[in-house]
Design a protein that fits this description.
This protein is of the alpha/beta class and about 350 residues long. The chain has eleven helices and 20 strands. It folds into two domains: about 180 residues, Quinone Oxidoreductase, Chain A, domain 1; about 140 residues, NAD(P)-binding Rossmann-like Domain (Rossmann fold), CATH 3.40.50.720. Helix content is about 30%, strand content about 30%. The strands form five sheets. Strands 3, 7, 8, 11, 12, 19 and 20 form a seven-stranded mixed beta sheet that branches. The chain is globular and about 60 Å long.
Length: about 350
């Protein structure tokens, strides 16, 4: 089978690998579509994200959908031909976090495309059946591959304990920011202000239902958000850009007693932050790490048409051209939101 294998920063090769067989409790999935995540890009560009370092050849990719080809011993509820979305994080199921239902915090989780666990830019994967979710008949493989990023957004809204009718601001309208916008609309937000430095992305966000778009290169986003919320600030602020300055501004843009949800990953472990203002305003700052127990909800929201994801896909490439997708992200010469790869045509 064909696989895209990363050997180090910028060294990606298309190789033949042995086709796996499903073990007990697993299913063999023929991967159809897999999206490129920003984390995939970071591994390709830098060979690491924090403590996760590419030390051995690694198959990237974790936003995937496909078709079950074979099931292993003891698998129930799945059979060959089932179309599925792959949930890429498999926890231990035994630690305190797993028992509490917060398995995204499991310290023993195996996550696709994160060293040393291989991912889904490969024609076949054997994966635990409990983490394969059936797709509704009308759902496309492209939509199925968007369930993973949508689940991040839904988890962020859950972490915020979002109340319908509240105001919200979203910093950064790349893929995660866009699906966070969709999740907030589905959750009944009364006004959504989006912030970015790219006019094209802001235009796309307005087309998707954002109420106000602010280009942070031309206007102070904190002042704009306060202007749009009667001088108070937003009830909820979602930081999805991964920009340190945006994280700083998120606290300032939140109202007294508001909630700031940090989704983006930052290049620095430490940076300047308005802690005193957060204390005085009693702003709650909540982190988001992946998701837990939201894939079924994400699938249903897309199936019902409550959330639109398919039109966020701006580029489709065959597996052999995966590196072209990384270069599009790296060079910034083309406008894109989500780049997906046709793994199995």
């Amino acid at each position: 089978m064909k696989a895209a294998v990363l050997y180090g920063p910028g060294v990606l090769r298309i190789e033949e690998r042995p086709k796996p067989s499903p073990g007990p409790g697993e299913a063999l999935v023929r991967v159809k579509v897999c999206g490129i995540c920003r984390s995939d890009y970071h591994y390709w560009k830098h060979g690491r994200i924090g403590e996760f370092v590419v030390r051995e050849p690694l198959i990237l990719g974790h936003e995937a959908s496909g078709v079950v080809e074979e099931v292993g011993e003891g698998v129930e509820g799945l059979k060959p031909g089932n179309r599925v979305v792959i949930e890429p994080g498999v926890p231990c199921g035994r630690c305190r976090y797993c028992r509490e239902g917060r398995y995204n915090l499991c310290p023993h989780v195996r996550f696709m495309g994160t060293p040393p666990v291989n991912g889904a830019f490969v024609e076949y994967v054997a994966w635990p059946a409990d983490f394969l979710h059936k797709m509704p008949p009308a759902m496309t493989f492209e939509e199925g591959a968007m369930i993973e990023p949508l689940s991040v957004a839904l988890w962020a809204v859950r972490r915020a304990e979002f109340v319908p009718g509240s105001t919200a601001a979203v910093f950064g309208v790349g893929t995660i920011g866009m699906v966070t916008l969709e999740a907030l609309k589905a959750s009944g937000a009364s006004k959504i202000v989006v912030v970015d430095v790219d006019d094209w992305k802001l235009e796309q966000a307005l087309k998707r239902g954002a109420d106000v778009a602010v280009n942070a290169k031309r206007e102070d986003p904190v002042a704009a958000i306060k202007r749009e919320t009667g001088g108070e600030g937003a009830d909820y602020v979602f930081e999805a850009s991964g920009a340190e300055k945006a994280s700083y501004q998120a606290v300032k843009a939140a109202r007294r007693g508001g909630v700031v949800v940090l989704i983006g990953l930052y290049s620095s472990d430490e940076f300047q932050y308005p802690v005193l203002e957060a204390i005085i305003k009693e702003v709650e700052i909540r982190g988001v790490h992946r998701y837990a127990n939201v894939f079924p909800s994400a699938i249903q929201l897309v199936a019902r048409g409550s959330v639109r994801v398919k039109d966020l896909v701006t580029h489709k490439l065959p597996l052999e051209r995966l590196e072209e997708g990384f270069r599009i992200m790296d060079e910034g010469r083309e406008k894109y939101i989500k780049i997906q790869v046709d793994v199995g045509r």
